Structures are given as C-alpha cells and as structure tokens.
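Please, structure for the following, as tokens.
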Amino acid sequence: MIAVIALGLLAMSACLALQVLASVYAARYFARATRQPLGPKPLRGIFLQFSVLMLMLMTGNIVQVAFWALLYRLLGAVEDFETAMYFSGVTFTSLGYGDVVLHGQMRLLAPLQAANGLMMFGITTALFISVIQQVTAKWIAAQSVRT
C-alpha cells in the first residue's frame, strides 16, 4: 500500500514538472504576444492570444492525463491504452463516472490522480485569469488613449 501511494506521489511530482513546463511556455508566448499592439481589431487579437494560450495549457493537461494513463497501463491496472486514457481523463478532471474502476491496491492511485488534476487545473486557471486581467488592463488603457 505504501509503495502504491509513494508511486502516486512520484507521479504527482512528475505532473507538476510537466505543468511548470507548459506554464512557462505559455507565459513566454504571452509575454511575446503582449508586446504587440492590439491593432485596429483588438478583440480579434485578444481572442487569438487567449486561444493559443488555452491550447498550450490544455496540451499540458492532456500530456499529464496521458502520463497517468501510461502508468496505469504499465501497472496492468487496465486492459488497453484507450481505456487507460479514458479512465485517466475522467479521474484527472474529477468526473469519476465509475464505469471503469481500478482493483486492489491500484485503486489508491485514483484519488491521488484526482487531487493532482484539481491542483493542475487550478494552476492552469490561475495563469489564464492572470492573462485575462493583464489583457483587460491593456485593452482599457488603449481605449482611454483613443477617446
């Protein structure tokens, strides 16, 4: 039991590293994008920036889901990778449908993955909200200059 929990904590640490990597790349993109003027159609530019940022951050989360799925497959907890991805995605997002369940000590990994997913989506959300605040302030400043 302790070995399974330790493995889960190690997987959580690996996911944190993946989340940091995705967040750094997303922040770098945003830092470059924010230096550009909003242009004559600022809402289009803002939408594009948000879309790219969202895709970068969600790709980081999907990679983490795949990481947990690979772990489940390597441990023999599920029959195939597709089922592992489905179970991992449902668990990472804390939906928990219950149509696929782990057995024995392996089921101790699911709550760790769910907690991990909540924390990683929290980081994703925090970064996204920060960007929204910065872009909103820039847009308001640009509007006040025009009037």
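The first helix runs from residue 2 to 34. The mean pLDDT is 91.
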